[in-house]
Write a structure and sequence with these properties.
mainly alpha; 10 helices; two-stranded antiparallel ribbon; 3 domains; two-stranded parallel ribbon; about 5% strand; about 220 residues; 4 strands; about 55% helix
């Protein structure tokens, strides 16, 4: 039977970046229905009750799914949020950085509480590869650690998807942000580029606002 095969091969299943399927309705309808049926079957079938299914997604679930066929409205939902200043200060201590509250605030004014970027910045400073003032001053340059390890990939992704690039430029064009379709805002959120202020979509951090605004200005001149 299918459930015996699944548990013999995959007793624990982790599906990462599942939002990549959100743009493929010919795939996600049946696939997500299967995940939901496995969850429901676990309530009545002893062997499937031992199945541990973890679904990870960066974008909000904007796809149209019937309530009783969706795997996103059952189980335990855990949202990984940005680091608070207290968390950033604690992480600085763990990196043995003698930072003040003002130092943490200066870093967060550029990158917010982005977990990966905060960790990257502290790792580089703690290992003596750069000091905090230089890191902040060069944050949006192509010589920065953020460009090499993060911004370059995002730039490539946007340039490969003209609809996303245009949507991001709309977000940057207004101080209050833009109103986008659920599909576009979901994909930009999935990339980690934006956050929401009411119905408006705004850049997630000053790093993204400044870097991609400068990039758009260069493209306009050319």
């Amino acid at each position: 039977m299918l459930e015996y095969f699944i548990l013999s091969v995959f007793p624990n299943i982790l599906l990462d970046a599942i939002d990549l399927l959100f743009d493929a309705p010919h795939l996600y309808n049946n696939f997500f229905s299967l995940l939901r049926s496995l969850h429901e079957a676990g309530k009545h079938t002893e062997i499937l009750s031992r199945l541990r299914l973890i679904i990870s997604h960066a974008a909000e679930v904007y796809i149209p799914l019937e309530i009783d066929r969706s795997p996103f409205n059952v189980g335990i939902s855990i949202e990984v949020s940005e680091f608070s200043r207290d968390r950033v200060e604690l992480l600085a201590t763990k990196h043995q950085l003698n930072w003040t509250q003002q130092d943490c605030d200066r870093l967060m004014s550029v990158i917010g509480g982005h977990p990966f970027l905060v960790r990257l910045a502290m790792f580089e400073v703690a290992h003596g590869n750069i000091d905090l003032p230089t890191l902040i001053a060069t944050a949006t340059s192509r010589q920065s650690i953020f460009y090499r390890r993060h911004l370059a990939r995002l730039e490539t992704t946007l340039n490969s998807h003209p609809d996303l690039l245009a949507a991001m430029n709309d977000v940057l064009a207004s101080p209050t942000g833009a109103i986008l379709s659920p599909r576009l805002r979901g994909r930009l959120e999935g990339l980690g580029l934006v956050k929401f202020s009411g119905e408006f979509v705004i850049p997630r951090s000053e790093l993204y606002r400044e870097y991609f605004s400068n990039l758009a200005a260069i493209e306009t001149k050319s």
